Fold this protein.
Amino acid sequence: MAHTKTLTFADQVRAIPEGEHVETCYACGTCVSTCMIQQKGEPQYNPRRLLRMVMMDMREEAFKSPTTWLCSACDLCYEACPQEIHISGVIGAVKQLALGAGYTSPLETVTVDESLCSGCGICVMVCPYDAPTLVEKAVDGQMDSVSEVDANKCMGCGVCVAACPLGAIARPGVSNAEIVAQIPLGRDLTTVEGPKLVTFVCDWCLRADSDVALLESYPENVRVIHIPCTGRIDPEMALRALRSGIDGVLVCGCAPGECHYKRGTYVSSCKIGLLGRMLDQMSAPAGFGSGRVRFVQIGTQERGRIRAEVDSMLAYLESIVMPVREAGS
């Protein structure tokens, strides 16, 4: 009688595209030192440990591991890996098996208000993870096309939240209302000395703890707002700040090719660039408008650069913007 071979956990991972490299890893730990997830919030995140679980047939432990769910496929680790393994592909194979076994993502993801959604599909185009799709369903008694988000694909970056023109998408903690509430009104800072600057900072672009601490040391005229990704920025937030009397807005994101959420920094650079050109068309002297809203991309190895960027922006506002504002008042 022929016996059917029982596939091991490693066999199943290898059978999924990009999972075939599970045995190539020799556990040097380079991926762990490159990735920022462990440093930024999850001490148990460890790709080489997950791959070891696969080889040891520790299926349940692997499915419950935070590494399976937190990898955003930014692939910073790929360039550093001496074995040239797409670690994110192997982790993705483990995640696929976990979903097949009935496990679900523990991440906080976005939700769609179907009564507001127009089915425009912009969220589908901008999502780095193909989480939203357009589906036909009954809304308020009528068939309509609306966005539906797969919570097991969504990484919670918020790019779709900023892209939605009707505000139909939200994510707890970084909804439009919650971010706008952190923007100070310029008229409330009339007694504060120096140019008034709002700085949006991606949680992933600063590796050094000293850089993060520096942002909290600036005086009251510099308001720092932390966001999960610069792709979460809506240009309307910058306009709201300027209208309220804030002198300038600085957006700090990841360097090209280093975005934690794949292309969030690219989406933001396009939006802020368009906003700058629009402001230039509305302002005089030339360049005055775009100079008030600046987007910078900071590499993970550029320690200390955040100080230079904030100080440079403050100097510009002090020498160019404030004199123009005072002359017009």
The domain at 173-323 is CATH 3.40.50 (Rossmann fold). The chain is about 40% helix and 15% strand.
